[in-house]
Amino acid sequence: MSHILHQRPLHNTLFSSPYPTSPRSSSPSQRPISILSRTGLVVLLSLMVALGVLLPWMGMPQGIFSVTRPSMTKWRAYTLPQAASFVAKNGTVIVCAVSEPYLPFLNNWLISISRQKHQDKVLVIAEDYATLYKVNQRWPGHAVLVPPAPDSQTAHKFGSQGFFNFTSRRPRHLLHILELGYNVMYNDVDMVWLQDPFPYLQGKHDVYFTDDMAAVKPLNHSHELPPPGKKGRTYICSCMIFLRPTDGAKLILKKWIDEMQAQPWSRAKKANDQPAFNWALMKTAGQVDLYLLPQAAFPTGGLYFKNKTWVQETQGMHVIIHNNYITGFEKKIKRFQEFGLWLVDKHAQEESPLGRL
Ligand SMILES: *[C@@H]1O[C@H](CO)[C@@H](O)[C@H](O)[C@H]1NC(C)=O
Ligand SMILES: *[C@@H]1O[C@H](CO)[C@@H](O)[C@H](O)[C@H]1NC(C)=O
Ligand SMILES: *[C@@H]1O[C@H](CO)[C@@H](O)[C@H](O)[C@H]1NC(C)=O
Ligand SMILES: *[C@@H]1O[C@H](CO)[C@@H](O)[C@H](O)[C@H]1NC(C)=O
């Protein structure tokens, strides 16, 4: 029964809205129905759904309602443990968190990961239902939504409270994945892989991360947590983190969550989750085995996009490029285009698991 229900094209139309109404939960009311009213529309749709369910039982040809696309409704119940176990390879999951406006960046990032043959491990944590359905429709099982979905209107404005709320969910998701026993690599999607980063995750450290400082370091710089800067803290990027499922890594994430709660968002501070991550690293440094990745392989955008001399000196060493130290979608896309890192226009069809979006 539910199988038949799930195969109907009407569902795809209904559930492409970010806040879908379940036809099964809306019962026809006794009041007069206006076609133009919202309730009227819901009732009408419910009737169409009911009709669609009944028609096959009434001997109508099923063909008119059959559709090749898989059900969208089932993804609402898809959980993080199910998703992690589906995508994990060698006990490792690559995670990003994306809201609908970032889908072009997700696609760009995915192309670069596919070139390194690590796309099978990718799990997209969808921050709205549109993203959950779009990704899973094209690439079943690779997106999960951990309810409740944050307010998608505000979630992507950098520095806003919505953005802060959105990023504050990250450490919780990562902790959950570690508690399930996986290694996890987190990436922001305004990144592009030029080489495979996994060979750089040497040794058995708890947490691997990159520095967001633009100052040039010697090639043989230390892998220790750098000394604090002007604000009394380090400037480690929360954009690219690799964690092993160890007590040390879990401690960092718990501390990160605590730090975010202790220093909640305020308009004046325009906070994001990065300062809290740095306080967590500094406060647990003695108890946790930390590893700073090499700058030449994982440069901040403040260095890669701004210092041509350095880029030439370190040619062939770059592994992941981060398009930060700039705000705004259009500016980020333009900069990626200028550096030949905007891959979606030409390569999405053949190289992205999502195809052209
Ligand atoms: C899993 O790890 C082994 C050994 O390190 C490696 O050869 C293999 O390619 C890995 N598989 C995947 C899917 O990454
Ligand atoms: C952010 O989260 C707080 C606390 O959960 C909530 O009260 C507030 O409405 C949220 N704001 C936005 C813009 O999402
Ligand atoms: C890096 O190399 C320089 C010159 O060879 C040396 O003096 C320095 O101690 C090295 N630094 C580290 C952290 O190994
Ligand atoms: C740019 O890179 C060069 C070469 O590494 C370095 O000597 C120079 O100090 C850098 N410039 C700035 C502004 O950081």
From TrEMBL:
Organism: Tripterygium wilfordii
EC number: 2.4.2.-
Region (Disordered): 1-32
Feature: compositional bias, Low complexity: 16-32
Record keywords: Cell wall biogenesis/degradation, Glycosyltransferase, Golgi apparatus, Membrane, Signal-anchor, Transferase, Transmembrane, Transmembrane helix
Protein name per Swiss-Prot or TrEMBL: Glycosyltransferase
Sequence similarity: Belongs to the glycosyltransferase 77 family.
Occurrences of domain Nucleotide-diphospho-sugar transferase (ranges): 118-336
Domain of life: Eukaryota
A GO MF term: UDP-xylosyltransferase activity
Location(s) in or outside the cell: Golgi apparatus membrane
Enzyme class: transferase
InterPro entries linked: Nucl-diP-sugar_transferase, Nucleotide-diphossugar_trans, UDP-D-xylose:L-fucose_XylT
Segments traversing the membrane: 41-60
GO biological process: rhamnogalacturonan II biosynthetic process
Any one Pfam family match given in the protein's UniProt record, by short name: Nucleotid_trans
Primary localization class, coarse: Golgi
Membrane topology classification: Single-pass type II membrane protein
GO cellular component, one term: Golgi membrane
PANTHER family: UDP-D-XYLOSE:L-FUCOSE ALPHA-1,3-D-XYLOSYLTRANSFERASE-RELATED
